[in-house]
Write a structure and sequence with these properties.
mainly beta, five-stranded mixed sheet, four-stranded antiparallel sheet
Length: 148
């Protein structure tokens, strides 16, 4: 018997909203999440995948101090915020193509998780967040015993 598909309207709505945001940003030549207190906030690109037991989110944040990254999980919603600080001040850049300033990303995880058991690691500029799924959504394997 195959896996049953369940429609999750909130997850679909959030995914649709994020897709529309990306579409408009690309159409207007902008990258970013929006404005926060008068400053531009860049959209943090991420990879997210699930295993049987956990949700894993990875984001490239080179040059960012891990202590300057704020990660919050509320229910099934994950938010990652931080800021890329420019390496030099009081200089006049001739070319400045690397992005600096605040970044953020909010994602719907799509499943209940154990936020208190989440772990974040930082290796060579890649942030990896591993969040265990709640027990009720983990697959259960039941062994069949023979009475012979």
């Amino acid at each position: 018997m195959g896996r049953r598909w369940m429609w999750e309207p909130m997850s679909d709505l959030i995914a649709w909203q994020q897709a529309m945001d990306r579409l408009f940003d690309e159409a207007w030549g902008r990258r970013g999440l929006g404005w926060r207190r008068g400053e531009r906030v860049d959209l943090l690109p991420v990879d997210m995948y699930t295993t049987a037991d956990e949700v894993v989110v990875q984001a490239s944040v080179p040059g960012v101090d891990p202590n300057d990254v704020e990660i919050t999980i509320e229910g099934e919603t994950l938010t990652i915020k931080g800021e890329r600080k420019p390496p030099l001040e009081n200089v006049e850049y001739q070319i400045q193509e690397r992005r600096y300033g605040p970044f953020a990303r909010t994602l719907s995880l799509g499943v209940p998780v154990q936020a208190d058991k989440a772990e974040a690691t930082f290796d060579q500029g890649v942030l990896t967040l591993t969040i265990p799924k709640a027990e009720e959504v983990r697959p259960k394997v039941i062994k069949v015993k023979s009475k012979e």
